[in-house]
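SEQUENCE WITH STRUCTURE:
===
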Amino acid sequence: MLTLAIIKPDAVKNRLTGKILAHLEADGFVVRAARLVKLTVAEAESFYEVHRARPFFRPLVTFMTSGPALALALERDDAVMRLRDVIGATDPAEAKPGTVRKLYAESKERNAIHASDSPENAAREVGFFFAERELRGL
């Protein structure tokens, strides 16, 4: 099963990409596709469309367009739920010890990594960043 992770601009800027990737691989995730991206405002608005009515939407779009991010198609059994467990709570102050966000996030807003929250969203989100031909045979 594939899921999407995005190592966010704060973590890329702070040169945590390798540590986060190593953390994910140590938990059994296999990187099936990766792309360094610099989202435009329109792309970020489209990707986070589900949150448009929420008060954090505009700050999230601004943050996600502030610098490069690393989009990852990750594979393992029960990938969606396992990735959510491995990254921890959105607020690093509430994240369990040893999770990505507890280790590397700056704040609830600058929380180092995005992960799909359902198999349906994982399929949509992986497709947002990666063409079918990039994932063929996986």
Q: What stands out?
A: The two ends are 9 Å apart (CA to CA).
